[in-house]
Amino acid sequence: MLLTIDVGNTNITLGVFKEEVLLGTFRMTTKRSRTSDEYGFTICGILEHRSICPQDIHSVIIASVVPDIMHSLTSGIIKYLNVRPLIVSAGIKTGIRIVTENPKEIGPDRIVDAVAGYELFGGPVIVVDFGTATTYDLIGPNGTFEAGITAPGLETAGRSLWGGAAMLPAIEIRKPASILAKETISSMQAGLVYGAIGQTEYIIRKIKEESGYPDAKVVATGGLGKIIAPETDSIDEYDPELTLNGLRLIYYKNKKVDR
Question: Does residue 257 carry a pLDDT above 90?
Answer without folding.
Answer: no
